[in-house]
Specification:
heterodimer; A: 404 residues; alpha/beta; 6-stranded parallel sheet; two-stranded antiparallel ribbon; globular; B: 274 residues; 5-stranded mixed sheet; two-stranded parallel ribbon; 7 strands; 40% helix; elongated
């Protein structure tokens, strides 16, 4: 099979993994050195596809032959998809070529399970090892970790990769048993634990070789089972706490060709995925707890973002005086982000904050307006009931798209 | 009224601004003339002889901010910078912060310049160059601000000892494997070199791009927000976008699979014997 044909199949097979980040790596440079590649912690999106997703890494599977039969996966063994397999050398050549042309900032390599979990993991490691050692490639490498593989192999992978990820796949153990019969929650979290332990050991000893300095991430599929947002976010919160994950990715289940009857025919609204990402961002960046954002059951509202929803159900805290409030509380005001909160705090050391200052800081003023007090402004809507305010502030209902 | 020329070069402006501050000339008494334009009113009064007075103390953070904002292309870009400099050196530190009217304009320009540097790092496309020794990769890129000279050093970190050339209609950089050479305007032979490879196809990249795209999630608005239209002409994938979007809208593919893949024969794997 021609290389281009393999690439067509194995990129298509990899697209359901949402992660494409090239951030979090330590600073590396090839200036004046043999080899190529640099990272600076920031990550670069080199292109965007018409689905609005960023292209940052060459994201491919080594092979989409697979022994497993996960119902939500296009590459499950019972799926009628074209199959292909790269040699490690082909992946290496493609990575170096795409990198030098500045299409990507590195490689995200995953694979179907062939022969055995250990064998598959060894193949993935070989690609990363040759890139690093023979080609002195200093770009970003993200390796998917096969949870059932030997912990020694996972430890080896972390020496070459900037990021490792093990997908939790589904928000509940029951769904995993039903939809991914060969997988087990125990081995998935076990692999996460192996990565976290190795990472801790490497951080504790400065002379120790670096271990996956970009940390680990995971992905949860949304809408392939009946789990609600509360379940999903609580699972994410537990994972963040226990394994120090950098990111949990939420991937709206995408209808796949020849879908089995065990998974839905319809995709969940992409807006649901969007709200989950917003809530996740509040967990990671704003110090929110899941229980503040959502009850023990149920879903996030679709018409308003989770921060606004939180503010509307906690009206007694508002309005907040921007000249007096703690920075953390300012960042909790709808329409004002962490960066703007920092700017407000540094500006108020020099002068009293006025309404126009907030406008100039490019906060989402319409959203913030009912919740703030400045030296020359008090919200008229302060007395307004939350229900009415919600109606006023909800995202405009999108017109039903005529096409796609 | 003082009318000055700095040819849109920061070091020259900086020296002039230093002299102006030492002579206590306020912002409203100075204009910088655009290169190639004549001033309707006022005389081209050159600055008096350097005064022996202590140099004004300028915070390093402000100097960095001014150097960045100076790369923002707009008619009259230097007046704002001098006004901010004047105000900060006269005790108004808020003049460089986003909450202040001048500071907000300054920060807006810095943000736009940083964004344009980021666009350069993201959307430059290097074509392998075999034609001549001394060069491995060639690219054409049109930044909206004057970021090429400083932001292109990024590629020396990425490409090690490789030698490369980036040209724009305004200027160009050539990295010889050790040193970065900046030219403004772009030499004609460099421009010709870049034009000779500009439109070369790369079927591998084009296949990858259409395969990694998920047609079940079509969302061209978000794509365009991140990847402005003005860059599309310089990107091989930019020319494919209208075709991919219209195929999806016409219902060519309802699930996530790429058309090129669903056209191929599939293969079910028999249950493994355990």
């Amino acid at each position: 099979m021609e290389l281009i044909e393999k690439l067509t199949i194995l990129a298509d097979a990899a697209k359901y993994d949402a992660s494409c980040a090239s951030s979090g790596a330590p600073k590396r440079s090839s200036r004046g050195k043999d080899g190529i590649g640099a990272t600076n912690g920031m990550g670069i999106c080199h292109s965007y596809t018409p689905d609005g997703r960023c292209v940052s890494l060459l994201k491919i599977l080594l092979t989409n032959f697979c022994l497993y039969d996960c119902q939500y996966c296009v590459n499950r063994r019972s799926s009628d998809v074209p199959r292909a397999r790269f040699t490690p050398e082909e992946v290496i050549t493609l990575t170096l070529d795409f990198y030098q042309r500045n299409y990507v900032s590195g490689l995200f390599l995953s694979s179907g399970i062939i022969q055995s979990p250990d064998y598959t993991m060894e193949q993935l490691i070989r690609v990363a090892k040759v890139l690093r050692e023979e080609h002195q490639f200093r770009g970003y490498i993200h390796l998917k970790t096969i949870p059932e593989a030997d912990p020694a192999l996972i430890a080896e992978a972390g020496r070459f990769a900037d990021r490792l990820s093990v997908n939790i796949e589904l928000p509940s153990p029951e769904s995993l048993i039903r939809l991914a019969p060969e997988k087990e929650v125990g081995s998935i979290t076990g692999a996460m634990g192996t990565i976290e332990t190795a990472s801790q050991e490497s951080r504790a000893d400065r002379r120790a070789p670096k271990f996956a300095p970009g940390g680990q991430s995971t992905q949860m599929i949304v809408g392939a089972d009946a789990s609600d947002d509360s379940r999903i976010l609580h699972t994410a919160e537990a994972l963040y706490g226990e394994y120090r994950l950098r990111r949990v990715y939420y991937s709206a289940f995408s209808p796949i060709p020849n879908s089995p009857t065990s998974v839905p025919m319809q995709a969940p609204p992409l807006l649901r995925e969007h709200r989950l990402y917003q809530a996740d961002f509040l967990l990671r960046g704003y110090g929110f707890k899941v229980r503040e954002l959502i009850g023990a059951q149920g879903n996030l509202p679709l018409d308003i973002d989770p921060k606004l929803a939180w503010a509307l159900s906690n009206r007694e805290i508002f309005p907040v005086d921007l000249n007096l409030a703690e920075p953390q509380l300012i960042a909790r005001i709808p329409g004002i982000g962490v960066r703007s909160a920092e700017r407000i705090v540094s500006l108020r050391r020099l002068k009293r904050i006025r309404y126009d200052d907030v406008v100039r800081l490019r906060c989402v003023i319409e959203k913030a307006k009912p919740f703030i007090v400045t030296s020359d402004y008090r919200p008229r809507q302060d007395a307004q009931e939350s229900g009415a305010l919600r109606q006023q502030l909800s995202d405009q209902p999108a017109q039903m798209a005529l096409w796609g | 009224m003082y009318i000055l020329h700095c040819d849109n070069e920061f070091p020259r402006w900086r020296e002039q601004a230093r002299q102006l501050l030492m002579q206590a000339i306020p912002p409203h008494a100075v204009v910088w003339e655009e290169p190639g334009y004549g001033q309707l009113f006022g005389n081209d009064a050159s600055l008096a002889e350097p005064v022996v007075r202590p140099s004004p103390r300028v915070p390093p953070a402000l100097l960095d901010a001014l150097a960045l904002a100076a790369q923002y292309r707009v008619v009259g870009r230097w007046s704002l910078l001098y006004r901010v400099l004047w105000r900060v050196t006269h005790g108004e530190r808020a003049a460089m912060l986003a909450g202040d009217p001048d500071g907000s304009e300054l920060q807006k320009r810095i943000k736009a310049v940083n964004r344009e540097a980021h666009h350069l790092h993201a959307f430059v496309r290097f074509h392998p160059f075999m034609g001549r020794s001394g060069l491995d990769y060639v690219a054409t890129h049109e930044p909206a601000h004057d970021v090429l000279a400083t932001a292109s050093l990024h590629f020396a970190e990425r490409l090690g000892r490789q030698r490369w050339l980036i040209v724009s209609s305004r200027d160009a950089v050539w990295y010889d494997g050790q040193v970065l050479h900046y030219r403004q305007p772009c030499p004609a032979d460099w421009a010709a070199l870049a034009a000779s490879v500009k439109d070369a196809d790369d079927p591998l990249w084009q296949s990858y791009y259409s395969s990694i795209y998920n047609p079940a999630r079509l969302n061209p608005k978000v794509m365009q927000g991140h990847m402005p239209l003005r860059f599309w002409a310089g990107l091989l994938e930019g020319r494919m976008i209208p075709w991919l979007v219209s195929r999806t809208r016409a219902g060519a593919q309802r699930d996530g699979q790429a058309e090129a893949v669903s056209a191929k024969a599939g293969k079910v794997i028999r249950s493994p014997k355990r």
